[in-house]
Amino acid sequence: MNMSNDELKQVAKTIRKDIIKMLTESGSGHPGGSLSAVEILTTLYYHEMNVNSEKPHDPDRDRFVLSKGHAAPALYSVLAEKGFFDKDELMKLRKIGSMLQGHPNMNYIPGIDMSTGSLGQGISAAVGMALAGKLDKKDYRVYTLLGDGELAEGQVWEAAMSAAHYKLDNLTAFVDHNGLQIDGKCVDVMNSNPVDEKFKAFGWNVIVINGHDFEQIINAIQEAKSVKNKPTVIICETVKGKGVSFMENQAGWHGSVPNKEQCAQALKEIGGEE
C-alpha cells in the first residue's frame, strides 16, 4: 500500500479532478475546504490506513471520521477511487435518490464510519471510537479531520479534554488550517489562535506541518504512532481551494461551485482533461 510521493501526487490530481467535476454536476457543495484536504486524505487512504473496500465493516480496520463533514466531496472521491463504490456515483452527488448526500451518511455509503456535518460532533465520535478500541484491547487507530473554523465549537474542546484524560494514543486528529471559513478569515470571525498552544494545554502531542507535503504528512503520522499515553494533533497549514488559481485563498469558494467554463479551466490547471 505504501506509494511513492510521485504516485501519491498523481492520486491527488485525480481526486481534485473528481471534486471539481462532481461539484459542477451537482450545482452545489463545498470546493474550497475539499481541495485543501486532498493530500491529507490521500495519504491516509493510500499510504497509511488499514482499510479494505471488500470488508468495509471489518472490526479490526482503522477508522476515519470527517469532522468537517462539508468536505464530503474529497472523501467520496477517495472512497470511490479505492473501490468502496462505483465511480459513476460521484456524478450523482446531492441528487434526489443518490446515496451521496451533501454530508457523509454512514447508513448508505460503504466506507463511511460516522455520519457528520454538525461541526464538533465528528471529533467527539472519534474520541468514542478510540476509547472503545482501548476498552476492547484492539490495535486499530482512529483518525479525524477538523476544519479550523470548526475549532470555534465548544464541543471540540470537550472532546480534546476527554481524549487527553483517557490517554487515547490511538487517536490522531488533523486540523485543516487554511485560515478561512464561510464568512471570511477565521481570525476575524472567531479567532482560535494559537491552535498549537491550545491543544498542548489540553494535553495533546502537537505537530505542525505543511498539509500539502506528502513527506511531512507521512512523517507526522509515524511520529503520532510512536507517542504513548496522549493523543496527537497534526496541524496542517493548507491553502483553501488548493490547485485552482481562482479558488485559492478565496473565502467565497467555501460553498460556491464552478460553472462549466470555470470547471474546464480548473481541470486544465489541475492537469486533467477539459
TrEMBL record:
Cofactor dependency: thiamine diphosphate
Q: Does the keyword Metal-binding apply?
A: yes
Enzyme Commission number: 2.2.1.1
Which CDD domains does the entry mention? TPP_TK
Metal-binding listed as a keyword: yes
Q: Which GO terms describe its molecular function?
A: metal ion binding; transketolase activity
The record's annotation in InterPro entries points to: THDP-binding (IPR029061), Transketolase_CS (IPR049557), Transketolase_N (IPR005474)
* Gene3D superfamilies (UniProt xref): 3.40.50.970
Q: Where is the Transketolase N-terminal domain positioned along the sequence?
A: 9-271
Under which main EC class is this enzyme filed? Answer: transferase
Concerning Pfam families, the annotation shows: Transketolase_N (PF00456)
Provide this UniProt record's keywords sorted from A to Z.
Metal-binding, Thiamine pyrophosphate, Transferase
Which family, according to the similarity comment?
Belongs to the transketolase family.
The protein's name in its UniProt record: Transketolase 2
Species for this entry: Clostridium tepidiprofundi DSM 19306
